[in-house]
Write a structure and sequence with these properties.
two-stranded antiparallel ribbon; 352 residues; 12 helices; mainly alpha; globular
C-alpha cells in the first residue's frame, strides 16, 4: 500500500514539474519583449541590493566569528597552531588583493586578483609547514610560545615577503589572461565556453570540475562574466539531462533510479552537479560522455548568446543576476536535452 501511494506521489510530482516547465516556456514565448526586459532589469536591481546586504551580514558575522575563535584559542578550545594558520592565510590574501610590491607596498599598481590570493594561500600553508619543521629543533621550554608567537609572527612576515615578491608576476599572468579573454572573437569564446562547461561534467565535483569552477570565479572577479555563465551552465546540465532521461526513457532505468531522477531536476536547477554522480558511477562509459557533450553544448550556446552571470553559484535562484536570461535558459535546456537524447541512445534497456 505504501509503495502504491509513493508511486502515485512521484507521478503527480512529475506532472507538476512538466506543467511548471511548460508554463515557463509559454510565458517566455508569449510575453512582450520590452515587458520581460523591464521585469528582469527590476529583478536584477533588487537582487544586487539583496546581495549587498548579504555581503555586509557575512562580513559582520565573520568578524564576530574570528573574535570567537580567538577567545576559544585563549581558553584552549581551539589549537593556536590552527589560529596562526588562519591569521597567516588572511594576511597573505589581503596583500595579494592589495597588489603590494616592493616598489609600492601600499599596492594599487598590480592586479594580482583572485590568482594572486590563490597562490598566496598555498604559499602561506607551505611556509607554516616549513616553520613547524624548522622550529621543531628548539628546546621544549619554548614549546608554549611557538603557536602563540613564533608561528603567527614569523609566518605573517615571511608570507608577506613572498606574496609581495610574487605579486608582480601573478599580476602579469592575470592581466595577460584577462586581455586574451577580452580579445577573443566569437568562435574562440564559444570554444572556451565549451571547454570549461565540458570540464564541469568530466568528474562532476572532482578536481577537473573544481579547476573549471575556480577559473570561472577568477574571471568573475576580473569582470569576465561570460565565463562564469558557461561554467554554471555546464554544471547544471548533467543532473537535468539524467532527470530528463529517467522521465522519457523509463525502460533504460530501474524503478529506484527513476525515483532518484526526480531529485536531479531540483539539483540540476540549483547547480549541484553532484546529483549525477550515482548514475555516472554505475555506468560511467555512457553517462559521462553523454553529459559531457550536453554540458559543452550548453557552455558554447551560453557564450554564443552573450549570456553573463554575476554570481558564483545558485542556478535558477540567481536568475536576476544573469544577463540575457531567457537565452541562458534556452542554452541550459538545449544542452540538457542533447545529453538526455545521447544517453537514451547509449543506454540499454534494464531488466527489473
Amino acid at each position: 500500500m505504501y509503495n502504491e501511494f509513493r508511486r502515485t506521489d512521484m507521478k503527480n510530482l512529475k506532472k507538476m514539474l512538466v506543467l511548471c516547465s511548460l508554463a515557463l516556456v509559454f510565458t517566455a514565448v508569449l510575453a512582450d519583449a520590452s515587458y520581460a526586459e523591464s521585469v528582469m532589469e527590476t529583478g536584477m536591481k533588487k537582487a544586487l541590493v539583496l546581495f549587498q546586504h548579504i555581503k555586509t551580514i557575512i562580513f559582520v558575522v565573520g568578524a564576530f566569528g574570528l573574535i570567537g575563535i580567538a577567545f576559544q584559542a585563549i581558553f584552549g578550545k581551539v589549537k593556536w597552531t590552527w589560529f596562526a594558520g588562519l591569521a597567516v592565510g588572511l594576511v597573505a590574501g589581503l596583500i595579494a588583493k592589495m597588489g603590494s610590491t616592493f616598489a609600492n607596498p601600499a599596492g594599487g599598481d598590480v592586479n594580482a586578483g583572485f590568482l594572486g590570493a590563490l597562490f598566496a594561500g598555498f604559499a602561506a600553508g607551505y611556509i607554516l609547514v616549513g616553520l613547524r619543521k624548522l622550529l621543531s629543533k628548539l628546546p621544549k621550554s619554548l614549546e608554549g610560545i611557538k603557536p602563540v608567537l613564533l608561528y603567527p609572527v614569523l609566518g605573517v612576515f615571511i608570507t608577506a615577503v613572498v606574496t609581495t615578491f610574487i605579486n608582480p608576476y601573478v599580476g602579469m599572468i592575470n592581466d595577460a589572461l584577462t586581455n586574451a579573454l577580452n580579445s577573443m572573437g566569437g568562435t574562440s569564446r564559444v570554444i572556451l565556453g565549451m571547454v570549461v562547461a565540458g570540464m564541469m561534467s568530466v568528474d562532476m565535483g572532482g578536481p577537473v570540475n573544481k579547476a573549471a569552477y575556480v577559473f570561472g570565479t577568477a574571471q568573475l572577479a576580473e569582470g569576465n562574466f561570460e565565463v562564469m555563465a558557461a561554467v554554471m551552465a555546464g554544471g547544471m546540465v548533467p543532473p537535468i539531462a539524467i532527470a530528463l532521461c529517467t522521465t522519457f526513457f523509463k525502460k533504460k532505468f530501474t524503478e529506484k533510479e527513476r525515483q532518484s531522477g526526480i531529485v536531479n531536476y531540483i539539483m540540476g536547477l540549483s547547480f549541484i552537479t553532484e546529483g549525477a554522480i550515482p548514475f555516472a558511477a554505475q555506468d560511467p562509459l555512457r553517462v559521462i560522455p553523454a553529459c559531457g557533450i550536453g554540458a559543452a553544448a550548453a557552455g558554447g550556446l551560453s557564450m554564443a548568446f552573450g549570456c553573463t552571470l554575476r554570481a558564483p553559484h545558485g542556478g535558477i535562484f540567481v536568475l536576476p543576476t544573469i544577463g540575457n536570461p531567457l537565452m541562458y535558459l534556452a542554452a541550459v535546456m538545449g544542452g540538457a536535452v542533447a545529453g538526455c537524447l545521447i544517453l537514451g541512445l547509449l543506454k540499454k534497456n534494464t531488466e527489473e
